[in-house]
């Protein structure tokens, strides 16, 4: 990495941090459609300020997608940077030590909604481009920027954007939205994400709520829903839908080695969530593998009838449950959704509605891919310690749109830390890692461009 590049970043860190504050001061809560248009305009303005050419892409009913490019004559390769400018709702407000949309700097951290997820990461990509343009006139390879405004609500229109503008998103690799350093100071290189099917079940047994005394003669929607949910998994936590595990890929020997080397503190994990034991009494090694490679069927929410203070003797007319099914490589969400419908029909629940909210397959880049190796080597160089390599995040994102359509390798690296409190009150960004993360991404891009 050129010394002038590092000197420029270090000399301008105060201004870079102010731009994180500037962007995080603009609310952009996609769940409430609050401030999204205004934030998209600000992001485009900030792209232009660093020297990128931009386009504000639109599809009907969607938040704008801000697209940018910084070309390079030094390499035929290009790297896509995917980030999002929308944020989670800020509630509960009473737990914030400072207003969520008036970011404050305290003890070497910026506090505010979105400063880590994902506006600090987004700004770090902008400043990466700016620093190359100011010190070398161009980056080591072409840079493309895809900044969407609906990630926190499932990226429901991102596929439409990619289909409508296919050539814009063509690149040789993609740096995904977010990266962390763990609490031991080790940078994490994440190579994939799980997929997901998110649905809501709706069970309606009556046309209106009834007095609970009529439960002796009228059907109960909540009981029907409970019985349905109980059939989805067995006592060993295995999903009972026929064919659900078809296609699940077996981890190869090298994957198993990478997984074995990945640190996982099972006791700290349990302590953090107040769990007395891991699921089904599994060991720490089993849990580590499950987080990477085990499909799930999670009840995210369930409701019916009265839940206020005191008593209300009511027989509810309907009951609802939201479920997320996490998927691993090899599982086809379209096929599984059909299997879920058939399972309900075959077991006497043909009347139960399945309302699909979002659906996307898993995606994963090979550990041996040159881009993955560039990120791993860069992490070792910048942090002076061996990085943690995570085969797959237990979470989900629309990574497949890029890895499958364009056959692009991807890495999840960046400027945040594990205790940044994303999605929670007092979300924060450590300024020392903000600076180091820029160097990490820079060296990754440089190694890849030269490979």
Mind explaining what this structure looks like?
This protein has 451 residues and is of the alpha/beta class. It has two domains: 3-191 and 365-450, Zn peptidases (Aminopeptidase), CATH 3.40.630.10; 194-248 and 295-360, Alpha-Beta Plaits, CATH 3.30.70. Helices cover 34% and strands 21% of the residues. The chain contains 13 helices and 21 strands. The strands form six sheets. A six-stranded mixed sheet has the order 1-2-6-3-7-19, with helices on one face. The longest helix is centred in the C-terminal third of the chain and has 20 residues, at 431-450. The two termini are 15 Å apart. The mean pLDDT is 96.
Q: Number of folding domains? A: 2
CATH hierarchy: architecture of the largest domain: 3-Layer(aba) Sandwich
Strands of the widest sheet, in order across it, are 1-2-6-3-7-19
Unreliable segments (pLDDT under 50, ≥5 consecutive)? none
Strand runs, count: 21
Taking Cα atoms only, what radius of gyration do you get, to the nearest Å? Answer: 24 Å
Q: CATH homologous superfamily of the largest domain?
A: Zn peptidases
Mean pLDDT across all amino acids = 96
Q: Kindly state the percentage of residues in helix.
A: 25-40%
- Termini separation: 15 Å
Kindly report the CATH topology of the largest domain: Aminopeptidase
Secondary structural class:
alpha/beta
CATH class of the largest domain: Alpha Beta
Largest sheet: 6 strands, mixed
The number of distinct helices, counting runs of at least 4 residues, comes to 13
Q: What is the beta-strand fraction?
A: 15-25%
Outline type: globular
């Amino acid at each position: 990495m050129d010394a002038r590049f590092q000197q420029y970043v270090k000399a301008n860190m105060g201004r870079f941090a102010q731009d994180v504050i500037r962007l995080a001061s603009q609310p952009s809560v996609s769940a409430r459609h609050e401030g999204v248009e205004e934030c998209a305009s600000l992001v485009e303005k900030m792209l232009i300020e660093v020297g990128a050419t931009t386009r504000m892409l639109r599809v009907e009913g969607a938040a704008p997608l801000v697209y940018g490019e910084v070309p390079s004559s030094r390499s035929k390769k290009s790297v896509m940077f995917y980030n999002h400018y929308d944020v989670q709702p800020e509630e509960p407000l009473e737990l914030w030590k400072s207003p969520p949309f008036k970011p404050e700097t305290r003890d070497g951290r910026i506090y505010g909604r979105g400063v880590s997820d994902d506006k600090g990461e987004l700004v770090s990509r902008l400043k990466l481009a700016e620093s190359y343009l100011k010190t070398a006139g161009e980056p080591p390879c072409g840079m493309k920027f895809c900044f969407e405004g609906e990630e926190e609500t499932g990226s429901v229109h991102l596929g439409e954007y990619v289909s409508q503008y296919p050539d814009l998103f063509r690149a040789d690799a993609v740096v995904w939205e977010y990266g962390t350093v763990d609490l031991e100071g080790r940078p994490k290189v994440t190579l994939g994400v799980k997929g997901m099917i998110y649905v809501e079940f709706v069970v309606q047994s009556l046309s209106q709520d009834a007095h609970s005394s009529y439960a002796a003669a009228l059907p109960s929607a909540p009981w029907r829903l409970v019985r349905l949910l109980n059939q989805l998994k067995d006592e060993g936590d295995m999903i009972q839908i026929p064919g659900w595990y078809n296609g699940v890929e077996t981890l190869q020997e090298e994957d198993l080695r990478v997984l074995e080397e990945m640190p996982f503190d099972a006791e700290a994990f349990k302590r953090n969530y107040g769990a007395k034991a891991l699921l089904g009494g599994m060991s720490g090694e089993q849990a580590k593998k499950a987080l990477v490679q085990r499909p799930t069927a999670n009840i995210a929410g369930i409701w019916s009838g009265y839940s206020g203070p005191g008593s209300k003797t009511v027989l509810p007319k309907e009951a609802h449950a939201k479920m997320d099914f996490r998927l691993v490589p090899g599982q086809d969400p379209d096929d599984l959704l059909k299997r879920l419908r058939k399972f309900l029909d075959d077991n006497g629940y043909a009347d139960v509605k399945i309302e699909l909210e979002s659906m996307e397959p898993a995606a994963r880049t090979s550990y041996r891919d040159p881009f993955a190796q560039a990120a791993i080597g860069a992490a070792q160089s910048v942090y002076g310690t061996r990085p943690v390599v995570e085969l797959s995040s237990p979470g989900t994102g629309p990574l497949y749109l890029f890895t499958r359509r364009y056959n692009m390798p991807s890495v999840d690296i960046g400027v945040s830390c594990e205790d940044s409190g994303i999605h929670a009150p007092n979300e924060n960004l450590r300024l020392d890692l903000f600076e180091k993360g820029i160097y990490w991404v820079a060296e990754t891009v440089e190694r890849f461009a030269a490979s």
